[in-house]
Amino acid sequence: MNKPEKLPHFRVVGTNPIRPDGLDKVTGRAVYGDDFKIAGMLHGKVLRSPHAHARIKSIDTRRAAKLPGVRAIITGADFPKPSVAMVPMGEGGYVDMNDTADNVIAKGKAFYDGHVIAAVAADNPHIAEEAVALIDVKYEVLPPVMDVRSAMAPGAAVLHETFNPGAFFMKTHKVLPNASRLELGAGDVARGFKEADVIVEREFTTETVHQGYIESHICTAQWDERGQVTIWTTTQGAFAIRDQVAIVCAVPMSHVRVVPLEIGGGFGGKDTAYIEPLAAMLAKKADRPVKVVMSRAESLRATGPSSGTFIRAKMGAKKDGTLVAADLSFAYEAGGFPGGPIAAGVLTSITRYNIPNVRLEGFDVLVNKPKVKPYRAPGATQSNFAVEQVMNQLAEKLGMDPVEFRIRNAMKTGDRLILGFPCPPVGGVEMLEAVKKHPHYKAPLGKNQGRGVAFSFWFGAGLTSSAELSVNSDGTVQMCTGSCDLSGTRLTLAMQAAEALGIDVEDVSPTIGDTHSVGYTLQSVGSRTTFATGIAVYEAAQKVLKEMAGRAALLWETDPANVAVDRGDFTDMNNPAHRFTFRELADKLEHSGGPVSAQSTVTPERVGFQLAAHLVDIEVDTETGKVDILRYTAFQDAGKAVHPDFVAGQIQGGVVQGLGWALNEEFWYDAKGRLCNASLLDYRMPIALDVPMIDVVILETPNPGHPFGVRGVGEVPIVPPAAAVANAIYDAIGVRMDALPMKPGRVLQKIKEQKSAAA
After folding, report:
1. Is the dihedral of CA 480, 486, 492, 496 positive or negative?
2. Helix (H, G, I), strand (E, B) or coil at 293
3. Which 8-state DSSP code applies to residue 564?
4. pLDDT reported for residue 3
5. Which of 98, 143, 169, 293 has its CA 20 to 30 A from that of 189?
6. What whole-number distance in Å separates Cα of residue 178 and Cα of residue 41?
7. What is the DSSP-derived secondary structure letter of residue 20?
8. In what helix (H) or strand (E) does residue 341 lie, and over which residues does it extend?
9. Is the same domain home to 444 and 384?
């Protein structure tokens, strides 16, 4: 990849063109999962376990099968055992496909409330629902294990007699019947704490939360006479769904075609097969296409939330404000199957700081809840909630400004990371200096009002992406990628193609290919799409330009080395009269060897770290404990903002979701492990009335791993809000919060404890 040392002025990158799919979405023309229909389609419904932990003694489907209109019924017995075990699966590292298959449909044991037991296909959804109710299941109910500390306690009920330890980012090693562990370290922690003049040690808990995407999981499956299945689905990764369906259903990957439809939100929760294998097996058994639609309650009960956690944090600093030691222990829920984001949570906990003596310990803990899934920067929000509060408490003990304390300890380019390699180019100090200089930081506050700050980090992801460009004779270009569009990436990728080719973005027509029409592409996750697929687009564009330069040389009867290419203009360096614009040369391609197209598949590694710092002003009602958000400013380094409006939107969206974590969102389970708030009336997400206008400050420290300097932006904005709000609550009323969400009851309890202690 040809990367200039200094980034030039861009024609397209950095502008704000209108997104090409916007009108279709606001007028209802865009095809989402529930819009898709096909002739002869049946409707599938799912029977789910009412128990959080139970052995399945028997399943009797005879009454359901006799109901008129029922065309097929499946149970776990209809699925083969996967022929492969551990396979790579995007940002999550390696996944045990036996676990994936058992999560799709229970085989012998139900591991959470809502676990699939059986599924029915019928002429309409009402008959299918009636049939599901006629299936008779006998259970042996087992004690549920519902939080990490209970799961790790001696004598806890054991979920799996054996399991492959989780490997999300990094491998863990089994150490308890329900838990596996990892540990990282540097320096001498005991010596570091001896050198410390101030030490803060605290404990924190966070609850299970869900991504809350507006559109639930929906898919339709159809087989053809060649034994090939096509699945139309709402997903963040068509190839991930293809691979999982192929393995779970024992079908060659070449026989599974996945067509991604528009997606109504995902945030990390829609790259795993839940209902797609069910629809495929029902369609095969019924010999008819089958559509399966999850209800909102099913999505909340049975799709991957983010981990609840228990965290111990101990950190120490010298009088001059230098951090010298950190000893952190994290226990993260994995859900009913191993592989939670423990490594990501551990690694992002302190990576933005330069601390010489560190011990980091993490536990991936099995509990009777759905297998967790990423939710924007998986694992980082929880660890940031703990560490950024400890940072503020250390600063207070030292009598230092909290931002100045962070500046003094911020990781800088070249510093050694906990993973052992030097920190790539980052602008953390510059970002924190921008926070200090911003008018928000010194604005006056009123009674019971407080200001909080939090600084955060996310790695980003590269992973494999493919793109294809085809030049039309009128100078326009067709662009096809394998990356599903969640946030406008059709346009940000088209902008990079236009920039590389030297043409207008309006001349690039972007499409998203299915798994039979474009090269292998991993999921749209980890803030990787504009970055990684952007590099694939850029590389394909370089191939197009090289081929077109060769065609120009052929027409001018000169050596291709004599053809200069500059922003879409082709010039014969030996004869300046020989000159073509991109459009002019495109018109001549058919007569000089035929149309030009190029494909590129890349797996970039220099992803460019993501940093964000957030300021929030809040007001606490000391009579009720309610916290109101008054003002919010988010600072983030985008490397190069391809589409600044989209970047700001991503940041604002992440902030709102982070405020949900901070103040409202949590799963409520009863003593039997049943989810009690399985609706968006009871699972309280923020609405427009809960948040002010969120100000965004975009900084740009170019990422040398991308030709235009791009860093991902979608993950890190969710990380700081919870910690920033907690720090603001302390600033407002002097109480320190140690649990998420910081709902009115918890805040009021802290106020009462404070009054009792002062009495």
Report:
1. negative
2. strand
3. E
4. 43
5. 169
6. 42
7. T
8. none
9. yes
Token readout for 327 is: 């000893």
Q: Which two tokens stand for residue 720?
A: 């700081």
Q: Which residue has the tokens 């039309």?
A: 472
**pLDDT tens, position by position, 523-572:** 999 999 999 999 999 999 999 999 999 999 999 999 999 999 999 999 99
Range of the domain at 53: 40-142+214-265+270-302
pLDDT of 403-428, one tens digit each?
Answer: 999 999 999 999 999 888 999 999 99
Q: Tell me if 512 sits within 8 A of 481, measured CB to CB.
A: yes
Taking the C-alpha atoms of residue 456 and residue 376, their distance in angstroms, rounded to an integer, is 13
- Look at residue 503 and tell me if it is in a domain: yes
The reply to whether 455 falls in a domain is yes
Query: How far is the C-alpha of 170 from the C-alpha of 345, rounded, in Å?
Result: 11
Q: Which of 538, 571, 602 is the last residue of a domain?
A: 602
Say yes or no: 295 and 319 in one domain.
Answer: no
Predicted structure pTM score: 0.97
Tell me how far apart the alpha carbons of residues 549 and 555 are, in angstroms, rounded to a whole number.
10
pLDDT of 535 reads 98
**Residue pair 137/117 in contact by the 8 Å Cβ criterion:** yes
Among candidate residues 651, 665, 639, the one with its CA nearest the CA of residue 718: 651
Cis amide bond preceding 341, omega within 30: no
Reply yes or no on whether the pLDDT at 4 is more than 50. no
Asked if residue 164 belongs to a domain, the reply is: no
Q: Which of the residue ranges 211-215, 588-592, 707-711 would you say has the lowest mean pLDDT?
A: 588-592
Asked if residue 165 is part of any domain, the answer here is no
Single-letter amino acid code for the residue at 318: K
The token pair that represents 512 in the structure block: 């998203």
Q: What's the Cα-to-Cα distance from 398 to each of 373, 442, 736, rounded to whole Å?
A: 39, 20, 17
Dist CA 278 CA 281 (whole Å):
5
450 touches 728 (CB < 8 A) = yes
CB contact at 8 A, 157 and 144: yes
- CB neighbour list of residue 375: distance below 8 Å, 6 or more residues apart: 209, 210, 211, 267, 268, 269, 305, 306, 381, 718
**Within its chain, how far is the Cα of 678 from the centroid?**
22
Same domain, 556 and 588: yes
Q: Domain check: are 505 and 394 in the same one?
A: no
Q: What is the pLDDT of residue 8?
A: 64
pLDDT in tens, 467-500: 999 999 999 999 999 999 999 999 999 999 999 9
Instruction: Quickly tell me which residue has 């990628």 as its tokens.
Output: 481
- Helix residue spans in 255-379 (DSSP H): 276-286, 296-302, 342-350
Largest CA distance in the chain: 94
Do the beta carbons of residue 93 and residue 51 sit within 8 Å?
no
Q: How far, in Å, CA of 366 to CA of 109, rounded?
A: 14
Q: How far apart are CA 670 and CA 543, in angstroms?
A: 59
Side chain identity at residue 166, one-letter code: G
> What's the rounded Cα separation, in Å, for the pair 731 and 396?
11
- Domains: count for the chain: 3
Q: Whose CA is closest to 193, among 356, 329, 362?
A: 356
**What is the rounded CA–CA span in Å between residue 350 and residue 362?**
14
In sequence order, the 6+-apart residues with CB closer than 8 A to the CB of 435 are 403, 441, 453, 613, 615, 635
Tell me: cis bond preceding 125? Omega within 30 of 0 counts: no
Report the alpha-carbon distance of residue 345 to residue 341 in Å, rounded: 6
- Which residue bears the tokens 């058992």? 102
| DSSP assignment of 295-336 | -HHHHHHHS--BPPEEEEEEEEE-TTS-EEEEEEEEEEEEES
Opening angle at CA 270, ends 265 and 271, nearest 5:
140
Cα dihedral across residues 746, 747, 748, 754: positive or negative: positive
Q: From the CB of residue 41, how many other CB atoms can be counted at a distance below 10 Å?
A: 19
Query: Residue 684, class by beta-carbon neighbours within 10 Å (0-12 exposed, 13-18 middle, 19+ buried)?
Result: middle
Asked whether 354 and 411 are in contact (CB, 8 A), the reply is: yes
Question: Same domain for 319 and 412?
Answer: yes
